[in-house]
Amino acid sequence: MMNQATFVYTEDFKKYKFRDDHPFNQKRVELTFDLLKSMNALNDDQILAPRKATDEEIKLVHDKAYVDAVKRASVNELPEEEGLEFGIGTEDTPIFDHMHDAAAQLVGGTLTAVDSVLNGDFKHALNFGGGLHHGFRRKASGFCIYNDAAIAIKYIRQQYNYKVLYVDTDAHHGDGVQWIFYDDPNVCTLSIHETGRYLFPGTGNVNERGHNEGYGTSFNIPIDAFTENESFIEVYKETLETIAAYFKPDIIVTQNGADAHVFDPLSHLCCTMEIYEEIPRLAHKIANDYCNGKWVALGGGGYDIWRVVPRAWAQIWAIASQGGAPFSGELPKNWVNKWHEESPVTLPTTWHDRSDIYKPIPRKEEITEKNKILVNKLLQPIRNEQKYMM
Amino acid sequence: MLVEEIMSESVITLNPTNSIEEALELLNKHKIRHIPVVSENNQVIGILSDRDIRDAAPSILEETHNQQILLHEISSIMTTPVITVHPLDFIEDIATIFYEHEIACVPVTKNNQLIGMVTEKDLLYRLIQLTGIHEQSSQIEVKVPNKVGILPHVTKVISDRNTNISSVFIYPYQDSYHEKIIVLRIQTMNPMPLIDELKQHGYEVIWPNIPGLSK
């Protein structure tokens, strides 16, 4: 019998660690796992231990020369100059011992999730160790070494002839995945992110629509800095519903970066926990409506690892495993008590955020209007086509 | 940067005796807006824009199109004389020409021979490249006093953090002579430690700013 959902987890995810003070910290996966465990929301038969990705699998996306460079960096045998050519040894992706193994473990986690959905063991599979969407064919960047999301999509395309819809709600543009599938009409990418006017990586404009055969299957909404819940959710729902109806995917892969929250130190968006209930709720519905439930959910960014990420990702599990209802009310006290000493910030005690965690944004109406204009611009070709068909 | 670095060398041309109809076909086929008109020895003697043709073409509102017009020679409607540039001119010069003469294209000539073309679009493309946006990066804007030694100091703060700079722009702060804005695109996803350090050095980082936030 097919089970609802599986949670891919190993403590080894934490070995993907650049430096002690580096913002990318996989302890957030442990905190999420522990949060679910502490409220008995995760049974042992729902947990999958991940395999490690093989070199062949990694090379579905990445160049051999790049993989070799990462391997040499892992044992400290990569000259600095050569490393920089591959984006290795920079401030964002510094070299650390066994970085190849650690990165291959994250990819393996995502492939384990994909396998469990493809072979029908589970309808939905979650791997919060993955979602490293900035990795390029031959370049590490933005904290990402191997692009597990892109590898997973190639893997799906190789195993089955499924049409894949990739939905990226990280605050940063999902550029790695977009460029890798930019000319592939069977992979549709949708990225909703803070405008690249200031934020890394700078790309992700509405006019990046794909290339050659893939033209029309790349979608971007670069929302304004200081966008809040209401506008974010409106943009998300309208674009995802329209694009899913247009593309009709066979499977969806979501990248659930949790850095659009107002507490996140790296972005300038002003959302709260509300969006992290709505994001998986609609992804779940789209998966059920179009894909017989086939949904692979990945992690991604998320740099407030104490107050934001565990709650945000736990809600994805709530919706995936319970068929649509998010958690509400108080957080389990034993979880808060267990971690509050280690946390440098005061831990939240409820699933929802109070509305006064930030001061009102002065230009809310203009921001909302600007985002709405973007959505119309983005969806115009689809709507024109629909009009023409009628 | 020189004109020869950005000009396109494969130029579609016409002779003055070609018909307006032929010109129209070329414009549509190649999706271009200007055609230089050259003499037999490849000297530029005129230029034809899509507007020149539109002005000459019969109105689409007229019931019976006067097709005879399309058979006229283009020499009858081309613009002449033509503003041209030299391959060793600077691209800033072209920007000035476009701005002052309100045109969008110049032929490039050397020894009185046509060797290339530069359009508004080529220039805009370079401008976009100058902003560094084509490389993965974050942007910060720093307000600094307009005096000697500030730029190397700001960039040293960045290089000390092993972070590469994709591009630098400097422009005046409003109308002030005493202050400038330095716009930097830097190759990191996490500019926060850098921003903090620049602030500690007394610089004002004016963007990204966090208005009214208790972050």
Automatic annotation (TrEMBL), chain A:
SUPFAM superfamilies in alphabetical order: Arginase/deacetylase
Keyword hit for Cell cycle: no
Annotated Histone deacetylase domain residues: 22-318
UniProtKB keywords: Acetoin catabolism
Superkingdom field: Bacteria
Pathway involvement of the protein, from the record: Ketone degradation; acetoin degradation
InterPro entries assigned to the protein according to its UniProt record, in alphabetical order: AcuC, HDACs, His_deacetylse_dom, His_deacetylse_dom_sf, Ureohydrolase_dom_sf
A Pfam family recorded for this sequence: Hist_deacetyl
DNA-binding among keywords: no
Family: Belongs to the histone deacetylase family.
Protein name: Acetoin utilization protein AcuC
The organism of origin for this protein: Alkalibacillus silvisoli
UniProtKB/TrEMBL annotation, chain B:
Record-linked InterPro entries: ACT-like_dom_sf, AHAS_small-like_ACT, CBS_dom, CBS_dom_sf, Diverse_CBS-Domain
Name this polypeptide is given: Acetoin utilization AcuB family protein
Protein source organism: Alkalibacillus silvisoli
Keyword presence, Transmembrane: no
Pfam families (UniProt xref): ACT_AHAS_ss, CBS
SMART domains on file: CBS (SM00116)
Domain CBS stretches: 7-63, 78-137
PROSITE patterns for the chain: CBS (PS51371)
Keywords on record: CBS domain
